[in-house]
Amino acid sequence: QLQLVESGGGLVQPGGSLRLSCAASRFTLDRHAIGWFRQAPGKEREHVACISVSGGSINYADSVQGRFTISKNNAKNTVDLQMNSLKPEDTGIYYCATASLRLCAPPWGSWGQGTQVTVSS
Question: Which of 32, 40, 43, 59 could form a disulfide with 92 if both were Cys (CB 3.0 to 4.6 A apart)?
């Protein structure tokens, strides 16, 4: 299957920053938009951000807009999520996933293992 590997999670204080990376093959990144999702304990999975294959189409959840930035690092074959001004409600397991095609649209598949983000003082 298409393999995605998340990294960069950890424990951070409110107001802090964290950068998550979603590593994938060039084959994957050239053919699939990549989305970031998160799931807090007891909550439904939430769409966080997505970037199209070209990078020309980006979207964010209202809850993270202005604080998070999604980008493609073609040299490293990653899709990164820079998270600033973190809040306790940002806590959760963060996953990246492929869209079926080049644009940010369901269905989503080829999920990574997830990386834990904990925002707490």
Answer: 40
Q: Cis link prior to 41 (omega < 30° from 0)?
A: no
Q: From the first residue on, what is the mean pLDDT of each consecutive set of 10 residues in the chain (121 residues)?
A: 90 98 95 97 95 96 98 96 98 96 90 95 93
What's the rounded Cα separation, in Å, for the pair 80 and 45? Answer: 19
CA end-to-end distance (rounded Å), the chain: 39
Sign of the alpha-carbon dihedral angle for 19, 90, 68, 81? positive
**Contact between 46 and 57 (Cβ < 8 Å):** no
Q: 1 with 110: CB under 8 angstroms?
A: yes
Q: Compute φ and ψ for 58, nearest 5 degrees.
A: -135, 140
As beta bridge partners, residue 10 has 117
CA distance 116 to 121: 16
